[in-house]
Amino acid sequence: MLPRYLFPATPQVGILLNVNNVIKEYKVKHNTHIKSVFILSVAS
What we know:
mainly alpha
């Protein structure tokens, strides 16, 4: 559990959605990075 004082004005649902969005963005960036590295290594 995160301490409440870190998010005094933010509802729990907003925190969860925000975390989900960050995780999704990270996964997308990570996947495209892996794909581009894989393509480069195959192409060379």
